């Protein structure tokens, strides 16, 4: 048995993928914020998979102290099976104005990128040869396939962490697509850094999944309409699918031998695809890596 750490595993794609991986015999470290959410999700998995091995672990991606504590917890091996995979799935989309994390960083960038940078960047060297890292990005990062989402607005990592002054819902969607572009820069940079180790790092676009809670910050009427239309959207819209279907392909990226030698790649559902032209930029990739290390270091020092 091997261990996989999954962030954002309380609902949506994360919970479905955790359930699949538990069914195929993985020990699941189930990332959650809030004790009751973690216990509920673990119970849901155990109800579906009787032999499931699930360990809820508190990790608030928008609080770097919490992420650092989770890293320390995982570094103490305890009696869990050896760590073999890290799955950066947790994410948010905020459209009702600008918010900041506990560390003072723009909340979408902090949650979707910085928290994962600290978690995955700190634990990558604990993985063995053949270990897998998968980060959930989104096709919305690509203006050519964005399903109506506005294009990313890349500036500098420091400016992205500070947040811009666009308080409109569209501004929030820009910040979301920008954070999903950051996920790709992170994957490309880490894949290069781990090239000689046999550990693979890939990005996944699940496609539009109308049955998850990602739209929870949208107005109530929009959420209800979206929920009601979910089966139709998932069945009829190209590139859309249920979270159940999307979890099958994500679980395969974590465990299928088909991907033993694939690294630095981008998957759209079941297929290897191409992320945007903008997502291939070695200068930005290295700049983001170095700036993220600095932003994380400063935040941890401030709150020590
Ligand atoms: N839905 C889509 O159409 C779609 C399309 C492309 C990509 N994606 C990506 O898929 C991933 C999963 O999203 P989903 O659609 O399954 O949405 P979801 O149902 O809202 O699930 C998001 C998960 O992230 C967790 N999370 C949010 N903020 C967190 C924080 N500060 N610390 C720790 N965990 C946090 C949530 O935990 P709580 O339960 O505590 O809130 C939840 O478990 C995201 O990265 C998203 O960007 C989604």
N-to-C span: 36 Å
Residue runs with pLDDT of under 50 for 5 or more positions: none
Q: Classify the secondary structure makeup into a structural class.
A: alpha/beta
Count of DSSP-assigned helices: 9
The whole-angstrom Rg is 18 Å
Q: Label the overall shape.
A: globular
Order of strands across the biggest sheet? 3-2-1-4-5-6-7-8
Instruction: Summarize the helix and strand pattern as letters.
Output: EHEHEHEHEHHEHHEEH
The strand count comes to 8
Helix content: 40-55%
Chain-averaged pLDDT: 96
Describe this structure in words.
By secondary structure, the chain is of the alpha/beta class. It contains nine helices and eight strands. Strands 3-2-1-4-5-6-7-8 form an eight-stranded mixed β-sheet, sandwiched between helices. Helix 1 links the parallel strand 1 (3-6) and strand 2 (27-32). Helix 1 (12-23) packs across helix 2, helix 1 crosses helix 8 (243-255) and helix 4 runs parallel beside helix 6 (169-193). The longest helix has 25 residues, at 169-193. The protein starts with a strand and ends with a helix.
Q: What keyword list fits this structure?
A:
binds NADP nicotinamide-adenine-dinucleotide phosphate, 9 helices, eight-stranded mixed β-sheet, 8 strands, 304 residues, alpha/beta
